[in-house]
């Protein structure tokens, strides 16, 4: 039975990954600085190390103490828009933090690594669906830090035999249970819920894009499916000398208006969105090519947009953010 350290394991995605790893029979340790994570999301009995990934001594000590075999690295700052205003903060957290983590792994001989990357590495795609061989042309400091993280992982793999998988997430939504909801202020579905709670109309940023209904199209992936992809990636690293970057999506595009309509169906009333001007840097459409992850990990998404919105709404009602 292997032991995996999950950085950011008390966060929205991390908490789902922790539970899925534990359900697979693996031992799990959570490392989190709780800058955004919630301790209540970590199951009882799973060890918690309160530290930042940039604290190399603390990370090294945790890797040794818990006899860690592999690391799943989710801890990062992740708001593309925010990163434009405070780029150095994003580089410090996401690049310097990861450098420290990889150094700690190297010092302690940990050779398995699953890296939380992002579809932001592609920027505005030349064509959809986006394959893993598409050019990496990020359009925000956040996306740039994710590309640098992939380079660091690849280069360390070549230099030291690190077995790794980088997972390029598309748009994550939903909840596997009511206590694991997404409280982010930057993701579309919780943004709609927050607007409704505040008595506001949720906003659609632009309806003049070259898409069927004029609104942006994105590939939405259920967080429970994403957690299962992490376990498949961990298993791959355990049994292979891996060096893979893989998309994690459904290969299905949903427009912002379609998401709004689904929210209306789920909550039982028209959310009556307000259309405002475009946001800078929003590509008209972005969907994942999913053949490679199916072929290499045997993974494919099982849940649809209704599953995502309904589970997210249930979790929001159970634990409304303050």
Q: What is the topological layout?
A:
Layout lengths: L2 E5 L4 H12 L3 E6 L15 E3 L5 H10 L4 E4 L6 H6 L1 H22 L3 E7 L22 H20 L2 E7 L1 E3 L14 H10 L5 E3 L11 E6 H17 L3 E6 L4 E3 H12 L6 E3 L8 E2 L4 H7 L7 H14 L4
Parallel strand pairs: 1-2, 1-4, 2-3, 4-5, 5-6, 6-10, 7-9, 8-12, 9-13
Antiparallel strand pairs: 9-11
Helix pairs in contact: 1-7, 2-4, 4-5, 8-10
Please tell me the overall pLDDT.
96
Structural class: alpha/beta
Q: What is the CATH class designation of the largest domain?
A: Alpha Beta
Strand segment count: 13
Instruction: Point out poorly predicted stretches.
Output: none
How many distinct folded domains? 2
Span between termini = 39 Å
Strand order of the largest sheet: 3-2-1-4-5-6-10
Beta-strand portion reads 15-25%
Give the helix proportion (percent range). Answer: 40-55%
- The H-level CATH homologous superfamily of the largest domain, spelled out, is NAD(P)-binding Rossmann-like Domain
Shape: globular
CATH architecture of the largest domain: 3-Layer(aba) Sandwich
Report what the structure shows.
This protein is an alpha/beta fold and 322 residues long. The chain has two domains: 198 residues, NAD(P)-binding Rossmann-like Domain (Rossmann fold), CATH 3.40.50.720; 102 residues, UDP-galactose 4-epimerase, domain 1 (Alpha-Beta Complex), CATH 3.90.25. It is 40% helix and 18% strand. The strands form three sheets. The protein has a seven-stranded parallel β-sheet, sandwiched between helices. Strands 7, 9, 11 and 13 form a four-stranded mixed β-sheet that branches. It has a two-stranded parallel ribbon with strand order 8-12. The longest helix is centred in the first third of the chain and has 22 residues.
């Amino acid at each position: 039975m292997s032991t995996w350290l999950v950085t950011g394991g008390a966060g929205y995605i991390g908490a789902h990954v922790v539970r899925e790893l534990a359900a697979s029979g693996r031992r799990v340790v959570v490392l989190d600085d709780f800058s955004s994570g919630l301790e209540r999301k970590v199951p009882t009995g799973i060890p918690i190390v309160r530290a930042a990934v940039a604290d190399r001594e603390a990370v090294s000590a945790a890797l040794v103490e818990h006899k860690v075999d592999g690391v799943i690295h989710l801890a990062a700052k992740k708001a593309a828009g925010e990163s434009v205003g405070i780029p150095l903060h994003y580089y410090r957290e996401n690049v310097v933090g990861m450098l420290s983590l990889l150094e700690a792994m190297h010092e302690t001989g940990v050779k398995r690594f699953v890296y939380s990357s992002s579809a932001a590495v592609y920027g505005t795609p030349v064509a959809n669906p986006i394959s893993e061989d598409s050019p990496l042309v990020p359009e925000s400091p956040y996306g740039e830090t994710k590309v640098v993280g992939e380079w660091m992982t690849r280069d360390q793999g070549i230099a030291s035999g690190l077995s790794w998988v980088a997972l390029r997430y598309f748009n994550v939504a939903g909840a596997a249970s009511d206590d694991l909801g997404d409280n982010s202020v930057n993701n579309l579905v919780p943004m709609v819920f927050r607007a409704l709670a505040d008595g506001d109309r949720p906003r659609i940023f632009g309806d003049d894009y070259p898409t069927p209904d004029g609104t942006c199209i994105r590939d939405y992936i259920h967080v429970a499916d994403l957690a299962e992809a992490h376990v498949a990636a961990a298993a791959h690293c355990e049994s292979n000398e891996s060096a893979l970057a893989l998309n994690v999506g459904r290969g299905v595009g949903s427009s912002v208006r379609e998401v709004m309509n689904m929210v209306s169906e789920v909550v039982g009333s028209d959310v009556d969105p307000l259309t405002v001007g475009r946001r800078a840097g929003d590509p008209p459409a972005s969907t994942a090519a999913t053949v490679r992850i199916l072929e290499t990990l045997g993974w494919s998404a099982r849940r649809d947009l209704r599953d995502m919105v309904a589970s997210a709404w249930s979790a929001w009602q159970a634990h409304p953010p303050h």
